[in-house]
Specification:
alpha/beta, TIM Barrel, two-stranded antiparallel ribbon, 21% strand
């Protein structure tokens, strides 16, 4: 498989956009995961609405890549077929749906996916049944991918991952500067097909703060595994 991106999740009000942009310029395959929650906005890992608004405007015209990871009621709205409450998602950003499960009504969700064909929707799944549900959605809509993630941002190293060429897949769970090269060496095994990305949240934090030094270390270690076109941006 080919590594095409690294998502670092959990930037918040304590992180300066200038630092995000500096990392993005050095590592074009980098994507920042923005956790969006109504009830937790302003908490560590969950930026405030004001920070998001400012970041969006400063990002215009730059190379900084984003994915908006919708939590709680934001995610439930989309899973129920309604996107209006999350109109702060900027053009070009991917949308991750935390809480996608084997019980998700993919018919309702499919209406949102179909109405936004230029947006990639990521189904965060934590079970084989949920993964099969996401693959079913992908068969009907090209703009669907999935993140295999049992950890849910806790840093758990439960990485019983499967491989499926039918859907673009991301991998998360306990990845950090110490093990990222080992993890990527396994995922890039030549017997598997398809592009993939990795998502790191707890592994890029120190004392629950986004750690720019760890971020740089992870990206530097991941660089040799990145597909050439992704490494160039």
């Amino acid at each position: 498989m080919r590594l095409t991106g690294v998502t670092l999740t959990g930037v918040d009000d304590a992180v300066e956009f200038s630092d995000m942009l500096e990392l993005s310029n050095e590592f074009p395959f980098l994507e920042f995961g923005i956790l969006r929650s109504v009830g937790r906005a302003g908490d560590p890992r969950y930026p405030s609405d004001g920070w998001v608004w400012d970041m969006r405007h400063r990002r215009a015209g730059t190379v900084c890549k984003l994915s908006f990871h919708l939590c709680g009621s934001y995610a439930r709205d989309v899973l129920d077929g309604d996107l209006p409450r999350v109109i702060d998602i900027p053009l070009g950003a991917r949308v991750q749906l935390n809480g996608f499960s084997q019980h998700t009504d993919i018919s309702r969700l499919g209406h949102v996916v179909a109405a936004n064909p230029l947006t990639e929707f990521i189904c965060q799944v934590s079970s084989q049944a949920a993964a099969q549900r996401a693959i079913g959605l992908r068969l009907a809509h090209q703009n669907v991918s999935m993140l295999l993630d049992k950890s849910g941002g806790t840093g758990s190293d439960d990485r019983e991952w499967g491989f499926c060429s039918a859907i673009r897949t991301g991998y998360a769970g306990g990845i950090n500067p110490e093990n990222v090269e080992h993890v990527l060496a396994g995922l890039c095994a030549p017997m598997f097909d398809g592009d993939f990305w990795i998502d790191i949240e707890s592994g890029v934090r120190t004392d629950n703060r986004f750690d720019l030094d760890k971020a740089h270390d992870i990206l530097k270690r991941a660089f040799p595994f990145v597909a050439k076109e992704a490494a160039r941006g």
